[in-house]
Amino acid sequence: MDSAKEKAAEAQKKAAEAATAAQEAASKAAKATQEKAASATKAAQEKASAAANAALDKTASVAKATQEKAEEAKKAAQPKDQSPGFLQQTGDQVGSVAQSAMGMAQGAVDGVKNTLGMGEKK
Question: In terms of Cα–Cα distance, which of 119, 97, 98 is closest to 108?
């Protein structure tokens, strides 16, 4: 019977060694997978960061160009070699035209009111 016990003990020892080897292999595989995942995560973070920085740079560039165009338009809209007298005269003319337009509009309103019978009765 010793030989059966010895064979059983030997089989148990081999099974334990196989289990230990399987645990070590699984541990190595898990570690390798974890390292690959960490590497992929880092690469994805770097790529996302680079894309965000590129978008930020593009936005800043567009904003700067827009500001420059606005400043150019503002400068172009400013009168160049015109005297204050000319500007005063132009302002007076615009004011006169505006008053005439208001007078004509009021006349039109009064005409419509009179036509509809809503005008002032004298």
Answer: 119
